[in-house]
Design a protein that fits this description.
The chain is built from 6 helices and no strands. Helix 3 packs antiparallel against helix 5 and helix 4 packs antiparallel against helix 5. The mean pLDDT is 76.
């Protein structure tokens, strides 16, 4: 097999592993939600920790200084965590707007559709800023460093936000 064929097969294998990971994560999220547990930051924390374990070890092995100041990574990670926490995507926005299009007689009076729409839009804006920032960094700096620092600072931001947002889940009667 030539070098190009091996590279293509390697990329296909990595793509399949990523697809399997996304499907497994989605399944786990659905299972956890069906069990009545609402802890999205805890789920995010595990993803960020995995990135941290893998990529920070590579950065430490290289023994190089950071190419971008740490506070930019903190800002990028903060925006990333907010976007993921709000669970925004274009499909989510479309579904939220479609569900609000019901006639007022069919809507549940206990729900606040405008608040849901605002949260979805805020999450989408976070994703947009995050994607632009990551794209700039990936094109101009080291990709491994960016993923490592996003994982590290994403973990820190998730842990800091978990206490006030998930405190009610931890308190027992």
């Amino acid at each position: 097999m030539g070098v190009k064929k091996k590279a293509v097969w390697g990329l296909l294998l990595l793509g399949q592993i990523i697809s399997f990971s996304v499907a497994a994560s989605s399944f786990a999220s659905s299972l956890i939600a069906n069990l009545g547990v609402n802890a999205p930051l805890t789920q995010l924390l595990f993803a960020y920790l995995l990135l941290t374990i893998v990529y920070v070890s590579i950065i430490l092995h290289r023994r190089e200084k950071l190419q971008i100041a740490w506070y930019w990574y903190l800002a990028l990670a903060f925006i990333d965590v907010q976007g993921n926490y709000l669970g925004a995507c274009v499909a989510g926005l479309a579904l939220a707007l479609l569900s609000d299009a019901k006639s007022p007689d069919e809507q549940d009076p206990g729900k606040i559709p405008l608040l849901g729409d605002a949260l979805v839009i805020a999450g989408t804006v976070c994703y947009a800023f995050n994607n632009v920032g990551q794209e700039y960094c990936v094109k101009n700096k080291d990709r491994v460093e960016i993923v490592a620092m996003l994982g590290l600072f994403g973990s820190l931001v998730s842990v800091v936000q978990m206490y006030p947002l998930h405190n009610s889940l931890l308190v027992t009667d």
